[in-house]
């Protein structure tokens, strides 16, 4: 049995959380560069927690320049076992209204200008992302949100776009009508794929801020409206987070869905052909399987 450590990746509007005992902002170095910011560590309601603002405090990084690999590596290096990503999203569904939260369980990845893997020449690995989020962790988020009085939706497909511009009307309609997506954002990919490679359980909570541009009564996306909705959402996000420790507990069994064993049969490169320099960089991510 291992000890639980909760990692929260806070999206737009969520740059810190309160109530951590022994809170301190820590600098973490990784072989993939610096994470988005220092990481706030401490203990929340009896369980160790690490909080990382995805865009950095003051919103420094754009969705394309967020150092996704460094962020996931830094959380893993600190001992995080369970990552909850909290993200501002547009909605493609009338019934997923601004102010509601969605526990996302699928993604369509339309990003193209980002590093998407820790692996590559000299150590090739292929993990499954058929089920890219952890159902156990998603269920805890759903319960925590409902306990906090938030309107929660169980399951949804997140369209990850490159940005930073919002979608055209034609794109918005295509994602909604032809592709059956539920929400849209710019950051959960490659974050979710990298978390799987790092053998971390990952759940994604979408905080709905707008109806993207498809909705005839709402017109185009307006970032000032998004920020207004975000201000209300951020407090709800914190309320959800404060309920997670009681639901996840201090001790942790192996993930029933195998997230923490994703690399077991994934590495294809023969031991004698592996690149020592890449193996050294993989110390935190794949140390369990490579050492
Ligand atoms: C503030 S509008 C667009 C911005 O908000 C979302 O960020 P995050 O996913 O980190 O909450 C979206 O992905 C864009 O980066
Ligand atoms: N409509 C939208 N499209 C992409 N990212 C978003 N983040 C918040 N609203 C969004």
From TrEMBL:
UniProt pathway: Amino-acid biosynthesis; L-methionine biosynthesis via salvage pathway; S-methyl-5-thio-alpha-D-ribose 1-phosphate from S-methyl-5'-thioadenosine (phosphorylase route): step 1/1
Query: Example GO biological process term?
Result: purine ribonucleoside salvage
Q: Which domain of life is it from?
A: Bacteria
Q: Which positions bind substrate?
A: 186, 210-212
Q: Which Pfam families match?
A: PNP_UDP_1
Its biological purpose: Catalyzes the reversible phosphorylation of S-methyl-5'-thioadenosine (MTA) to adenine and 5-methylthioribose-1-phosphate. Involved in the breakdown of MTA, a major by-product of polyamine biosynthesis. Responsible for the first step in the methionine salvage pathway after MTA has been generated from S-adenosylmethionine. Has broad substrate specificity with 6-aminopurine nucleosides as preferred substrates.
Complex formation: Homohexamer. Dimer of a homotrimer.
Q: What is this protein called?
A: S-methyl-5'-thioadenosine phosphorylase
